[in-house]
């Protein structure tokens, strides 16, 4: 059992001298009181378990241990009384660690003798003093350090144990102690004076003595247990006092045994005092930073380790490998400080290092260029706070290639570099869907970083043509666009090989595109592309409205845009340009409209011409009129705007015979060929000899198309033909939307005011309104096909439009009944039966039926009332039924609701249902 106790505190609260006691006891030695000296032990407050072990010894042995190690015997009765009430027992072999943060709160004052502490008050939360954690903490056990090799320079002293083994004529093993006179007494050999010798000298002396005093004997000498020595650690120690350590312990080991330093201790000037004189000054930075332990001397009995207060300190943070607060001494420089901090990180910007300094009662800030060797060798001052920042993300001596290319990213820039130096082959360097006619070079000029944009033909640049193979400046961005605006267009027009690009390359292109967007959208506070202009309302006007063209409701959503489309790649560039003005005071945008593939707003390039703007818009459509185009220009003169129109021959511009320079806010309008039309298509279905979709010329009539289709079959039911038109479908959809909005307002108004006489809940009315909106408009045009074909129609023939559809059903011999009858169904047509007969056959009308407004829907969609009014006070006559007709018994809207619009609602629903039923029956 090994026992050790440090600070002993009396029960009455008085402080007893701090001492260390180590006893190596064996169970067999308890009775005889034999003490075996320990080779090493660490200083710590004994645990409760260790105190109980000591108390278990007989009183005589306790007093014997106390007298041997200089402890007041009265202190033994107070040992551990304070801890027993507050601490849990800890096993002797379990490590015990203490948190230095709780101990530091009880340490003596943290105020430094200089102004450094005040300067670093705000810094303490994130920066710590360097090196203190190396020695923080306390030993976890009283066990001695065993198995440590003994250095050859170790000085033998009283109490050391030496193993001597004699072999030769006979083999004898001796475990001997150096006695108080400094002799080692070897049986059959004699005594040898070894005290004061080094370990290596002692080995040589014993071997020589054995050879002289014996015949045929050889000897092996090694160290056993070493003696313990007592040293004193004073000054700014975490726990100053007397410590018993191994006889070959060093200064750094003793500091660790004592738990390290106080909050204000110096690591740069730890002094070893021996006999009243300073033997060595140990700079722990040499050990911690350089690994140099040459000043870490072996201790001797009675040595004093003095730790002075900390001197001046300097804080280093930012882009260094080891940010912390460092102690300085002498004339140390910025280079020394960077070495303490582990050096600067690779991305540290050494050209502008901030130094906050306190001098003559004033705080100041200096910015130093530590890349300069002379500045790096300048002295630092106590209280300096040095901050190394990151090198800016901006890459100089490089150009950026972005867009529909195989290898996007930064390329090394060299003087005289041109586009063809990066793009050497359209097949290997560009993606399949890259636009070979339109590319941009974007660069920043001047301290205000005004943007300049240059346009070039990609294919011509690759071929090295001087006009388009532009010379590049460092930090230029080269943009290559896709030919398509949407991802759907790309999928439909390019091969699967181009769409299944390698994921690594796709990620690389995405990173370069993100870097480009970040570079040109930085500093912008507006998300939408708007500019500050003087308008009537004083607000911000969208870019398209600068040209009198409001945003298109049918514009492509951002989610549908292709990754390298014009709209997506130009967006960050346009946001930067929107705050700039040209020399003429105009916004640096131009607009192209009309018969081009990608009409819209484009940046005004430095080499802007009408031909280049057409190329930027993706070229001309087939419908473009080449003999004439027009530019609308606004000239500012004396603060007033004057509009000018410039007409020119577009063919001459395209062929390069002439060109027109553009200026900001110019609008190019490419006209359409007169009478040009896209292909019109009309569909014939049903009982037509040759049904299908037909291409027609503009203004063609229905009868002429039917003749082209070979007429009708013998089973055609011409009276029931259904003619639908897309234009009418959209009109019906808009009318239904307007009606729904009006109904919603009236329902809400009646619900709030309690008017309208409605017995239905608001939710029920909303459900009915939802039913109305769910009705799909048909877009049916009522036609009397037999009269049209016979030329008897007073309205004449039908002029066809794109998307028209004619349904000609087979002959029908049925009558349908729908609406408020007991059972809506269909019956075989009988000429002898009337409307009333068919209603009676269906069980009659329901209670909610409006019998005064029963009507017949003819097979061609025309409506006819069941009873025709003949005079003021009477009605007579009944609608004559024909095959394919439908009898409709409407709902009495006054039964449940007094809203005037409900009759219109029910009419729309019934009419739509009838039309759909007729079409589905074909």
UniProtKB/TrEMBL annotation:
Polysaccharide export protein N-terminal domain residues: 149-223
Gene3D superfamilies: Outer membrane lipoprotein wza domain like
Region (Disordered): 80-112, 532-556
Sequence ranges of Polar residues compositional bias: 98-107
Protein's UniProt keywords contain Signal: yes
Domain Soluble ligand binding: 231-278, 314-363, 590-636, 682-718, 817-862
Name of the featured protein: Polysaccharide biosynthesis protein
Originating organism: Aliidiomarina sedimenti
Record lineage: Bacteria, Pseudomonadati, Pseudomonadota, Gammaproteobacteria, Alteromonadales
């Amino acid at each position: 059992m090994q026992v050790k106790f440090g600070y002993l505190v009396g029960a009455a609260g008085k402080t007893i001298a701090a001492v260390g006691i180590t006893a190596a006891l064996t169970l067999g030695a308890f009775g005889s009181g034999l003490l075996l000296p320990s080779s090493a032990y660490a200083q710590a407050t004994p645990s409760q378990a260790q105190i109980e072990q000591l108390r278990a010894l007989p009183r005589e042995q306790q007093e014997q241990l106390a007298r041997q190690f200089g402890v007041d015997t009265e202190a033994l009765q107070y040992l551990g009384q304070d801890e027993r009430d507050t601490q849990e027992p800890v096993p002797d072999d379990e490590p015990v660690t203490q948190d230095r943060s709780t101990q530091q709160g009880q340490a003596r004052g943290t105020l430094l003798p200089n102004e450094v502490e005040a300067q670093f008050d705000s810094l303490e939360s994130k920066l710590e003093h360097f090196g203190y954690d190396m020695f923080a903490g306390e030993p976890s056990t009283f066990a001695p350090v065993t198995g440590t090799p003994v250095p050859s320079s170790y000085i033998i002293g009283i109490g050391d144990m030496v193993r001597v083994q004699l072999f030769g004529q006979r083999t004898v093993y001796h475990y001997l102690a150096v006695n108080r006179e400094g002799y080692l007494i070897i049986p059959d050999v004699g005594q040898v004076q070894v005290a004061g010798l080094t370990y290596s000298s002692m080995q040589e002396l014993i071997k020589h003595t054995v050879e002289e005093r014996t015949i045929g004997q050889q000897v092996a000498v090694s160290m056993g247990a070493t003696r313990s020595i007592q040293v004193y650690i004073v000054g700014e120690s975490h726990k100053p006092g007397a410590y018993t350590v191994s006889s070959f312990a060093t200064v750094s080991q003793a500091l660790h045994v004592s738990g390290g330093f106080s909050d204000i201790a110096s690591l740069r000037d730890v002094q070893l005092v021996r006999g009243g004189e300073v033997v060595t000054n140990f700079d722990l930075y040499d050990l911690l930073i350089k690994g140099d332990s040459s000043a870490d001397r072996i201790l001797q009995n009675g040595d004093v380790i003095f730790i002075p207060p900390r001197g001046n300190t300097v804080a280093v943070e930012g882009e260094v490998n080891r940010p912390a607060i460092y102690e300085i001494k002498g004339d140390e420089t910025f280079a020394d400080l960077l070495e303490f901090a582990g050096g600067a990180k690779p991305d540290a910007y050494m050209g502008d290092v901030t130094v906050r300094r306190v001098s003559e009662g004033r705080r100041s800030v200096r910015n130093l260029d530590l890349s300069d060797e002379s500045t790096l060798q300048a002295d630092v001052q106590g209280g300096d706070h040095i901050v190394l920042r990151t090198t800016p993300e901006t890459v100089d001596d490089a150009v950026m290639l972005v867009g529909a290319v195989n290898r996007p990213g930064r390329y090394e820039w060299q003087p005289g570099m041109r586009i063809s130096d990066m793009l050497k082959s359209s097949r290997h360097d560009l993606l399949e869907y890259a636009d070979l006619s339109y590319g941009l070079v974007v660069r920043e000029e001047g301290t205000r970083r005004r943007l300049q944009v240059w346009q070039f033909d990609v294919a011509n640049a690759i071929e090295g043509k001087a006009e388009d193979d532009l010379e590049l400046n460092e930090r230029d961005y080269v943009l290559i666009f896709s030919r398509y605006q949407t991802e759907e267009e790309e999928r439909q027009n390019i091969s699967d090989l181009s769409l299944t690009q390698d994921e690594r390359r796709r990620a690389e292109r995405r990173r370069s595109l993100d870097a480009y967007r970040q570079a040109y959208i930085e500093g912008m506070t507006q998300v939408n592309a708007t500019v500050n202009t003087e308008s009537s309302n004083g607000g911000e006007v969208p870019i398209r409205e600068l040209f009198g063209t409001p945003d298109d409701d049918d514009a492509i959503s951002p989610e549908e845009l292709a990754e390298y489309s014009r709209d997506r790649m130009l967006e960050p560039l346009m946001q930067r340009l929107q705050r700039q003005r040209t020399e003429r005071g105009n916004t640096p945008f131009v607009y192209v409209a009309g018969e081009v593939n990608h009409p819209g707003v484009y940046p005004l390039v430095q080499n802007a011409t009408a031909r280049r703007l057409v190329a930027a818009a993706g070229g001309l459509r087939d419908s473009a009129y080449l003999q004439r185009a027009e530019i609308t220009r606004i000239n500012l003169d004396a603060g007033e705007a004057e509009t000018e129109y410039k007409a020119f021959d577009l063919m001459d511009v395209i062929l390069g015979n002439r060109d027109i320079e553009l200026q900001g806010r110019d609008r190019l309008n490419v006209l359409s060929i007169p009478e040009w039309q896209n292909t019109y298509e009309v569909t014939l279905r049903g009982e037509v000899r040759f049904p299908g979709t037909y291409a027609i010329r503009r203004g063609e009539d229905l009868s002429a198309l039917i003749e082209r289709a070979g007429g009708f079959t013998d089973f055609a039911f011409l009276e029931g033909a259904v003619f639908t038109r897309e234009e009418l479908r959209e009109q019906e959809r808009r009318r239904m939307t307007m009606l729904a909005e009006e109904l919603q307002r009236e329902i809400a108004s009646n619900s709030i005011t309690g008017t309208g006489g409605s017995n239905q809940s608001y939710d029920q009315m909303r459900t009915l309104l939802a039913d109305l909106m769910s009705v799909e408009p048909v877009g049916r045009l009522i036609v009397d096909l037999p009269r049209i074909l016979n030329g008897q129609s007073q309205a004449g023939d039908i002029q066809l439009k794109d998307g028209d559809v004619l349904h000609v059903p087979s002959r029908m011999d049925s009558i349908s009944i729908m609406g408020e009858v007991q059972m809506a169904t269909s019956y075989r047509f009988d000429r002898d039966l009337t409307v009333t007969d068919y209603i009676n056959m269906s069980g009659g009308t329901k209670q909610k039926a409006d019998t005064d407004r029963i009507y017949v829907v003819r097979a061609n969609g025309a409506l006819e009332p069941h009873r025709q009014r003949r005079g003021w006070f009477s009605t007579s006559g009944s609608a004559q039924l024909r095959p394919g007709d439908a009898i409709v018994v409407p709902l009495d809207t006054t039964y449940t609701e007094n809203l005037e619009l409900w009759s219109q609602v029910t009419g729309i629903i019934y009419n739509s249902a009838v039309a759909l039923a007729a079409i589905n029956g074909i």
